[in-house]
Design a protein that fits this description.
The protein has 7 helices and 11 strands. With 292 residues, the protein is of the alpha+beta class. The protein has an 8-stranded mixed sheet, covered by helices on one side. The radius of gyration is 19 Å and the shape is globular. Helix 3 packs across helix 7. Bound molecules: succinic acid (SIN) and fe (iii) ion. Succinic acid (SIN) binds next to strand 10.
Length: 292
Amino acid sequence: MTDIVSLGLTSWRPELESAAQQTAIRTIEGGGVLVLPRLSFELSAEEVRFLSPTWSDGRAKNISLDGAALRGAYGLDQDLGALARMIERFGASAGDLVTALFPRYAPYVKRARTSFRPQPAVGRPVSWRKDDARLHIDAFPSRPNHGERILRVFSNVNPVEDRVWRVGEAFATMAQTFLPRIGKPMPGIPALLAALRVTKGVRSEYDHLMLGLHDNAKADLDYQRRCEQQTVHFAPGTTWLCFSDQVMHAAVSGQHMLEQTIHLPVTALYDPGSSPLAILERLCGRRLLPAH
Ligand code: SIN
Ligand code: FE
């Protein structure tokens, strides 16, 4: 069963005792979800108005802040400036939190995009491959990452409604089920996709397998119903973290969440042997990244 472990932290820059630090590291690198039920991201009275899907441009799934660029939002410049500052403040807080919880990761907390999700978590019509209401690990067709980890910090900023997830089985167990169903990449295709800029860089065998796991798990409705899973409620004011390239997760319900992604090289981990790259290489019995 995937570990769901709570810590009672109340600060975005907590000073942790060694036992709590070890719990945080063991939970997250072991493929669990670290829940901080008492760590809320506070909105100012001015910012509460952003809890509405009307700030979305109606096209993008999320509003995101990438460096200084706000994407997917719609409104007057002065309002969007205030919205960007709110998202920026969350990104900075999430970076502080990760630095305090996992000091080894600190050099890599150059943040990737921060997202604000004012739309209901489920209900929009999407293809099965994009349907995050199905259990999946995160792997992105256009963004090969060669084993780099995807650490995500989430916060439920809805004042009344839980965000609800299903959390599935351990990565290795899931991988054992689906690896035999994934064919070899067609020779020459990864290089062609990169040359055509369909992918940002060349898809490695690791990326091919991660996408294959993502797609096969989402496509298998019988697996979706029957695999070992638990429902997890994240109450208003809760923050949680996981490696979303490792934890099988699915959105069930909720609205208004902030999310920060942090990319980490496998070498930054306390235990690189716990990474999806190491697990898949053990299961396949060979290296899955090209030699440098
Ligand atoms: C996801 O990251 O797959 C969806 C999570 C959510 O919307 O709560
Ligand atoms: Fe996801």
